[in-house]
């Protein structure tokens, strides 16, 4: 036993000595002895294995993963070997060292350790298996390789929306479609057949055959499942509410994750430039052309940064007259933007009017007129953002502000045009007696959804692709040079996605199969966009950071959800007032409120009282109070953390200045000593002076 | 050790799995790609060192401006020629793999950017780094004035202790707050 130990010890020593030869390529920081002795220097030294282990352990303790009381040695030995920044031989040596430790700590502990590594490996395998199930991994990898992280972020967002819609589909099937199919519909409902006056056009217009199909609200009449608290109308309503609430939770979760990142990036210590340099290179890029492009992004981005800096300098030096002139110019341009927006909204109103009043034309004209509002909205949203981009270039903002201003204006345009369209449809009171109003509303959403997809499709295959072909076939022609290279404008493309999702949320109450249609169109959009990116586009010249704008996009998604909620509330309110819906799960005076009230009425009295209390104002007040208290505590905690960060930063600066001071002191002391020695020996020691200087 | 030219022994494979962040499939793929770089008679030897020039023909590294630095950092060669053995190659892939920790990634990133190997990023290192990022030809390089302004800005932001250089802890401090770093510091075969 004794012998064994000594052998191990010898081996350990020899391993350490080999490590030190390995580490000899790392140079000494400073030649001064005291500097080497400082603990912080030893911790930050990259090469020798022990100090690395300590550094890792310290940072782990800093992150708060384990109790601080444990010594750094113990922590380091529990760290997986692969976490050591060593070469393979070094890791082997470390493992041998650990094996010795394990044999000395006994069987039970080593068994537990090996079990925990096995468990960890199992988890890792399961995680990677689940990750392997995610579709389109290969495509995403390829896109990332050619276009970098930014464009990939768009596709990841798209994939996320597909999953969201799939979830909606499942909920729809469970709550809405399933009960109706199983328990049947009302007695007076006719079976679904393809009648003589139906045509293929109905699939575009959402009328005729489709109007009677499960796609729309009117299909879901009250069936044989007719208990007080378990009937198809109630399930329908619960299904819709679940969809909206789940979306809310999911989107809020994603927004907060992104928000945390941007908060961490923080404006207080602007470290943006550091990211551009130190985290600038995307190591996933494999394509040489992609690498050249990436280099040009970075170059442009850095030039942009320097330009912005000198711009802010110039801005500070502006004279009063220049300022006034600029203000007037901006005012005029903003007025122009407002009038453009107003014109766009009037356009939408006009087209809505025409389309709502059309009847009895030729079928082609009728189709055109029916699709007029979606076409107008899409057209407006296609053209105006580019005009906004042009306008903002005149306003003499800095380049980043220009892009942001354009984006804000486009977002406003996009959501407001949808909102205004909804408002016109909702307030329109024409022919509500003959038709199912909800169906009509759902039809409009259906058309918006279909047209949005058609617009994506045709913009790629009728605009981008031919443009690319012209450039390929006649690269030197004047047309090709005028057209220039095509870029994948990520912000605008994400805007399109957000818009589509908003339409889907708004319409889901009136057209429960909209999530299914959404899923199909999104999957198709994925392939179309993939084709567009890989075939037609060269990567953008502006850097697009995946993290910085995703908060913005998710925030827009939230706005869309809000719009959907408001629309639904408004519509339900209207229904309450009128009591005259001839179709769907809530016909006549059987409104949503009535149905839920009947259900609540049938419950035991205890539950009733509780529910009524929860819905009353008496409950709202304590709820709001509690929310305020929780929020306050969080805000104060955040502030305290901020202060702690400030103090830690100060401490870091202080300690490092202490260190520098000590080193300087020591150096002067040494120099003094040497001088004395020199006087004594009367011979200059050149080498030492070199070392100390 | 049971290394043969075409296949890895089972023990060795599990050892590599323990010592790196790579999965079994990734190690086997890495081995396949590595043996493709070897010549006929080299395949018979164990632990052959492949020269840097041949490593750099890999498409994953070919267009990377830091390719030579990467080879130098991961090479355990005595001659400091940047040649890699298979185990060095695995170390490289492990540090650049999906599952490597931020700690490891930032450590190696620091060493890659530390061009003169003196354990700290000084103005010279930063200048070389920026040149790698923007492209090294004369028309793509930033002007001297731009470079000076840029490096001043970098040091102002990241050099906390104001000693004129960026050391490892300052570097990790910056990196740890970048959400994009882990996703972009990746090389997957």
Protein topology:
The complex is a heterodimer of chains A (693) and B (189).
Chain A: H1 2-22, H2 33-37, H3 39-44, H4 49-63, H5 72-78, H6 88-105, H7 107-133, H8 137-183, H9 202-205, H10 209-212, H11 232-265, H12 272-278, H13 288-316, H14 320-357, H15 363-370, H16 372-394, H17 399-427, H18 437-473, H19 478-483, H20 490-507, H21 514-536, H22 546-578, H23 592-602, H24 605-615, H25 617-681, H26 686-692
Helix pairs in contact in A: 1-6, 4-5, 8-11, 8-13, 8-20, 8-21, 11-22, 14-16, 14-17, 16-17, 16-18, 17-20, 17-22, 18-20, 18-21, 20-22
Chain B: H1 10-19, H2 24-37, H3 52-55, H4 59-62, H5 67-74, H6 86-95, H7 102-113, H8 123-134, H9 144-158, H10 168-176, H11 181-184
Helix pairs in contact in B: 2-6, 5-7, 7-10
Model description:
The complex is a heterodimer of chains A (693) and B (189). Chain A folds into three domains: 2-133, no CATH class; 137-358 and 370-392 and 403-615, no CATH class; 635-692. In chain A, helix 11 (232-265) packs antiparallel against helix 22. The longest helix of chain A has 65 residues, at 617-681. Chain A has helices at 2-22, 33-37, 39-44, 49-63, 72-78, 88-105, 107-133, 137-183, 202-205, 209-212, 232-265, 272-278, 288-316, 320-357, 363-370, 372-394, 399-427, 437-473, 478-483, 490-507, 514-536, 546-578, 592-602, 605-615, 617-681, 686-692. Chain A is an all-alpha fold. Chain A contains 26 helices and no strands. The two termini of chain A are 53 Å apart. The radius of gyration of chain A is 34 Å and the shape is globular. With 189 residues, chain B is mainly alpha-helical. Chain B folds into two domains: 10-95, Recoverin, domain 1 (Orthogonal Bundle), CATH 1.10.238.10; 102-184, Recoverin, domain 1. Chain B has eleven helices and no strands. Chain B has helices spanning 10-19, 24-37, 52-55, 59-62, 67-74, 86-95, 102-113, 123-134, 144-158, 168-176, 181-184. Chain B is globular. The two termini of chain B are 25 Å apart. Chains A and B meet through helix 3, helix 4, helix 6, helix 7 and helix 11 of A and helix 1, helix 4, helix 6, helix 7 and helix 8 of B.
């Amino acid at each position: 036993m004794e012998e064994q130990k000594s052998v191990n010890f010898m081996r350990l020593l020899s391993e350490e000595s080999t490590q030190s030869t390995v580490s000899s390529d790392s140079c000494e920081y400073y030649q001064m002895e005291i500097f080497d002795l400082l603990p912080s220097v030893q911790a930050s030294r990259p090469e020798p294995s022990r100090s690395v282990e300590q550094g890792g352990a310290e940072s782990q303790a800093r992150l708060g993963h384990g109790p601080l009381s444990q010594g750094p040695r113990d922590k380091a030995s529990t760290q997986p070997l692969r976490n050591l920044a060593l070469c393979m031989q070094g890791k082997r040596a470390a493992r041998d060292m650990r094996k010795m430790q394990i044999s000395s700590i006994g069987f039970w502990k080593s068994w537990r350790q090996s079990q925990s590594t096995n468990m960890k490996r199992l988890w890792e395998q399961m995680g990677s298996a689940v990750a392997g199930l995610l579709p389109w991994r290969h495509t995403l990898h390829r896109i990332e390789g050619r276009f970098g992280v930014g464009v990939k972020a768009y596709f990841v967002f798209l994939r996320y929306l597909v999953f969201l819609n799939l979830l909606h589909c499942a909920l729809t099937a469970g709550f809405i479609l399933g009960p109706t199919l199983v328990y049947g519909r009302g007695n007076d409902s006719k079976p679904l057949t393809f009648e003589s006056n139906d045509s293929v056009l109905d699939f575009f217009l959402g009328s005729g055959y489709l109007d009677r199909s499960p796609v729309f609200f009117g299909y879901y009449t009250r069936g044989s499942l007719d208990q007080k608290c378990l009937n198809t109308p109630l399930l329908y309503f619960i299904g819709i509410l679940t969809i909206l609430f789940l979306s809310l939770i999911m989107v809020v979760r994603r927004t907060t994750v992104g928000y945390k990142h941007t908060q961490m990036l923080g404006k207080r210590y602007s470290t943006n430039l550091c990211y551009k340099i130190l985290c600038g290179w995307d190591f996933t890029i494999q394509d040489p052309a992609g690498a050249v492009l990436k280099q040009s992004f970075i170059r442009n981005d850095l030039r942009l940064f320097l330009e912005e800096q000198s711009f802010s300098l110039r801005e500070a030096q502006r004279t009063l007259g220049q300022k006034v002139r600029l203000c007037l110019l901006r005012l005029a341009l903003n007025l122009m933007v407002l009038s453009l927006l107003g014109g766009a909204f009037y356009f939408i109103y006009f087209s809505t009017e025409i389309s709502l009043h059309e009847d009895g034309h030729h079928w082609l004209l009728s189709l055109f007129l029916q699709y007029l509002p979606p076409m107008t909205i899409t057209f407006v949203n296609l053209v105006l953002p580019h005009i906004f981009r042009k306008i903002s270039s005149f306003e003499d903002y800095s380049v980043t502000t220009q892009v942001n201003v354009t984006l804000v204006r486009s977002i406003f345009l996009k959501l407001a045009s949808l909102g205004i369209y909804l408002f016109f449809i909702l307030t329109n009171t024409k022919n509500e007696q003959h038709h199912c109003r909800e169906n009509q509303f759902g039809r409009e959403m259906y058309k918006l959804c279909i047209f949005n997809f058609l617009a994506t499709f045709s913009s790629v295959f009728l605009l981008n692709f031919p443009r690319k072909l012209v450039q390929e076939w006649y690269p030197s022609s004047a047309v090709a040079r005028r057209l220039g290279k095509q870029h994948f404008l990520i912000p605008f493309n994400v805007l399109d996605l957000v818009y589509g999702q908003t339409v889907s949320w708004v319409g889901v109450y009136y057209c429960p199969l909209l999530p299914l249609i959404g899923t199909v169109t999104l999957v198709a959009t994925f392939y179309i966009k993939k084709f567009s990116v890989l075939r037609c586009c060269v990567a953008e010249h502006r850097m697009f950071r995946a993290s910085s704008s995703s908060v913005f996009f998710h925030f827009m998604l939230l706005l869309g959800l809000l719009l959907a909620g408001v629309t639904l509330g408004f519509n339900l309110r209207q229904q309450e007032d009128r009591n005259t819906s001839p179709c769907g799960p809530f016909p006549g005076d059987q409104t949503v409120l009535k149905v839920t009230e009947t259900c609540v009425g049938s419950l035991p009295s205890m539950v009733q009282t509780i529910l009524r209390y929860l819905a009353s104002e008496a409950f709202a007040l304590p709820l709001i109070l509690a929310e305020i208290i929780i929020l306050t505590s969080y805000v104060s905690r955040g502030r305290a953390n901020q202060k702690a960060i400030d103090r830690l930063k100060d401490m870091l600066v202080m300690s490092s200045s202490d260190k520098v001071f000590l080193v300087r002191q020591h150096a002067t002391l040494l120099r003094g000593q040497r001088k004395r020695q020199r006087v004594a020996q009367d011979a200059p020691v050149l080498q030492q002076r070199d070392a100390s200087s | 050790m049971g290394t043969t030219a075409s296949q890895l022994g089972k023990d060795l494979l599990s050892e590599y799995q323990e010592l790196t962040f790579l999965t079994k499939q990734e190690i086997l793929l890495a081995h396949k790609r590595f043996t493709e770089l070897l010549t006929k008679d080299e395949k018979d030897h164990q632990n052959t060192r492949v020269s840097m020039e041949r490593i750099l023909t890999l498409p994953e590294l070919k267009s990377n401006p830091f390719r030579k630095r990467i080879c130098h950092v991961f090479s355990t060669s005595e001659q400091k020629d940047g040649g890699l053995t298979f185990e060095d190659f695995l170390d490289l892939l492990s540090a650049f793999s999906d599952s490597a920790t931020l700690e490891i990634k930032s450590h190696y990133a620091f060493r890659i950017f530390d061009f003169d190997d003196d354990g700290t990023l000084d103005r010279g290192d930063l200048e070389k780094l920026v040149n790698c990022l923007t492209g090294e030809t004369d028309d793509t390089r930033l002007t001297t004035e731009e470079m000076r302004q840029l490096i001043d800005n970098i040091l102002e932001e990241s050099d906390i202790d104001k000693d004129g250089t960026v050391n490892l802890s300052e570097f990790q401090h910056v990196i740890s707050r970048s959400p994009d770093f882990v996703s972009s510091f990746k090389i997957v075969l």
